[in-house]
Amino acid sequence: MAEFNHDESAIGRFYNELTYDIPYDLWLDIISHFKGNSGSVLDIGCGTGRLTSKLNFQTRYGVDISAPMLEIAKRENSDINYYQGDMRNFKLDMTFDMIVATVDVLNYLEDEEAFITTLKNVNDHLNDDGVFIFDIHSKYKMENDFNDMIYTDDTEHITYIWHALKGEAPLSAVHEMTYFVRNDDGLYQRMDETYIQRTYEHKDVIKMIEKAGLYLDTAFSDFDVKNSVTTVCDRIFYIVKKAL
């Protein structure tokens, strides 16, 4: 999992500002495509609730490990049920028609054991005819976009330098983040954070899905249900159901 204190992290405090360019509407289109008659949804890794708040379901729940993000989510969306918990072992006393884990949430799991454990936990919270949707970085993206690359951005309250390095584990990346947070007096405070992501070969993801008692209904890439999974795609989407 991420190697920083979620309660003190800059990304926890300024997540909405840092992620202004995330195309949530594209995820919403995919969720809507597979929604069917689903009445309840659980958003794993919901963060500040930006996606959760836009989900058109009668009952909406969100789970995240970051207390600062959940404080923002609860303040802005009081009609949604938010809980703090680790995606590997959170426990809710209910099951859902649909569960989603978007924006490469599962890439923060450190190894196959954690990945399978999380999928099993999803299985425990999914209705028998429910649907689980998640997406991860592809092998191609991990090897090309996160291989000694530097990215920067500047917003109203925070500036960052992001150094993406190849990790020690197979198909992993170390993200070294340096933030400069603007204080009320106009001076900047520096904050440094490091977190790790890891992805897997498409065939290995399918095996882990099956080990968790689920099965792959369909897979596609790059926000288009018509796009097959290729060796040069950036993001892979998985539509998963219970193996009854």
From TrEMBL:
Signal sequence segment: none
Q: Does the keyword Transferase apply?
A: yes
User: Is Lipid metabolism set as a keyword in this record?
Assistant: no
Q: Name one Pfam family in it.
A: Methyltransf_25
Name the GO terms of the biological process aspect: methylation
Q: Which residues form the Methyltransferase domain?
A: 41-130
Q: Name one GO molecular function term.
A: methyltransferase activity
Listed A to Z, the keywords are: Methyltransferase, Transferase
Put simply, this protein is called Methyltransferase family protein
The scientific name of the source species is Salinicoccus kekensis
> What lineage does the source organism belong to?
Bacteria, Bacillati, Bacillota, Bacilli, Bacillales
